[in-house]
Structures are given as C-alpha cells and as structure tokens.
Amino acid sequence: MKSGSQICLITGVTSGIGKETAIELARQGMHIIFNTRDDERGHASRNEIIKLSGNQNVDVFFCDLASMKSVCTFAGIIRAKYDKLDILINNAGIWTSRKIITDEGFESQFAVNHLAPFLLTHLVHDMIKKAPSGRIINVSSGIHYRGYLDISDPEFKQKSYNSINAYTQSKIANILFTRYLAESLKETNITVNCLAPGWVNTGLFREANVFVKLSARLMAHTPRQGAENTIFLATSPEVANITGEYFEKKKVKKGSRQSNDMILAEKLWTLSKDYLKDYINC
Ligand SMILES: NC(=O)c1ccc[n+]([C@@H]2O[C@H](COP(=O)([O-])OP(=O)(O)OC[C@H]3O[C@@H](n4cnc5c(N)ncnc54)[C@H](OP(=O)(O)O)[C@@H]3O)[C@@H](O)[C@H]2O)c1
Question: 112 CB under 6 A from ligand 1?
Fold first, then answer.
C-alpha cells in the first residue's frame, strides 16, 4: 500500500499510553498501523482512534507479542502490505505479578517487553530504511534506575522469581537495545531513541494491589500526559539528529550505569539473537 503520509507502526494501542499516542499521531495526519491480541478490542480501538482523530488511515492486525511466531506473522503482513515505515514505536509492555512461561518457553516479561520488540524491529527495519528519515522509539521506564539486569539469568531460572526485578530488568534491556541498535544504524537514515513516560495511570497496574491502584488513580499522570514524551520523539524536529539516547520529560538523561554499559549491550544483543534463532530469519 502506497501512502503519501508518514506511516507509523506502534504496538500496544488498545489501552493506556499507546492509545493516546496513536490518537495524537493520527490527528497529526500519520497513517497508523497497530497490533492487537484481541480482535474485538483492536477493532474498538481502531474505531475510537478514527473518531477522535478524524483520520481514516488506521489499520489493525492480530499479533500476540508473547508469541514470537505471532510477531513473525505480523511482520510478514506489514512487509506485504506497505512499501515503507517512517516510525516504529515499541510501546507495548506488561507487568505480571507472578512468573508466567509463554507457550514458546520464555519468561513472559522478558518475552513481551524485550524479545518481541527486538524481533519486530529486526524484521521491519529494512522498511524504515526506505523512509526519507526513520525513527525507532522504545518505551522504557524511569524504574530502570532501580533495576539490575542479570545477563547470566534473565529468565530467573537459577534464582527465585521477583516480578518487579523481572520488569525493571526488561526496561534496562529496552535502553541497552536502543543504544546498540543506534550504533549499528548510525550510517543510515534511522535514529533510535528511548524514553520514560513517567508514572501514568494505565492498565499496567491491573495486577497491582489496591493501594498501588488507588495511588495511581490519585497521583499519576493521565495516559495523555504519559504520551507526551513519545509524541515528542516521534514528531519533533529537535530530535531529528539525535540517536542512541534515553529521554525523560523531553530531555536527554544519562540513565543508570548499567543502561550505559555497551559491553553489556553487546552481550544482550548476542543473547537475544540466540534466544530468537528460530524466528529472526522468518
Ligand atoms: N504506566 C506507567 O506508569 C509506565 C511507566 C513507565 C513505563 N511504562 C511503559 O509504557 C508502555 C505502555 O504501557 P501502559 O502503561 O500504557 O500500559 P497498558 O495500559 O497496560 O498498555 C499496554 C499495551 O500493551 C499491550 N500488550 C501487552 N501485552 C501484549 C501482548 N502479549 N501482545 C500484544 N499486546 C500486548 C496491551 O494490550 P491489551 O489491551 O491486549 O492488554 C496494551 O495495549 C509499556 O512499555 C510500559 O512498560 C509505563
């Protein structure tokens, strides 16, 4: 499909920050493509984005990011239907209160928050090279400062599971992936950056206790406020030549020590490719 407007592929649009980001980018005239793991919710979100933005160019396809096979099918559809992508926003993410192993055998937070965006990006980045200037944006979190990525045991096979640590390490992985990918694409037309949206009252806390849910409702940002940083990285001319950086409140921030460790970034890259060896050439 040829499109005169910029084409933006964004994950996790059926609720929270992703939905608000998609509405605003559609309102600004972009052609939005997104995934859903539930067709009914996906079509309802599509209708809502069209209604609120006045833009009909909104396409949704099935993709469960907990399944690398599903990511492969999704990427295949995108490659078959569109000529290029201008922007890829890896926004979808989960926090689960207990250890869940996916059907393909991966720890679910590592799979959805890190392996799926890693794979999707690999499978579509050639399409972004066809855009005049492409942007890849990964949604990380400020909570990564409190995390530690144990590269020798990212799936908690050797130590007891801690759901918060599993989440925070996946958000460090988002930053390391951003920095390593930016380095490997630095001779191209593509920039790669990541961001923390702040504390936002969304579905991310659906498994949290009542106290956390209530505090989020009372004190956290609204999803629209939480989308500000992502919209900025997707649209602002100010960041057109910035790559490999981590943003908070529209400003470059250093990030944690581990998130700046390029040796760790390379190890994670190699490990992720190994994890995904059955899917990376799909
Ligand atoms: N909320 C915060 O305070 C906060 C802070 C820092 C960073 N973040 C990050 O912001 C991003 C967006 O999260 P949010 O806060 O907007 O949460 P949210 O409201 O729960 O939205 C998450 C989105 O990801 C999708 N998703 C989750 N698992 C999926 C899967 N297996 N397959 C396909 N789609 C899946 C969800 O789809 P369903 O509707 O099907 O569940 C939903 O559209 C995440 O990366 C999160 O880590 C959030």
Answer: yes
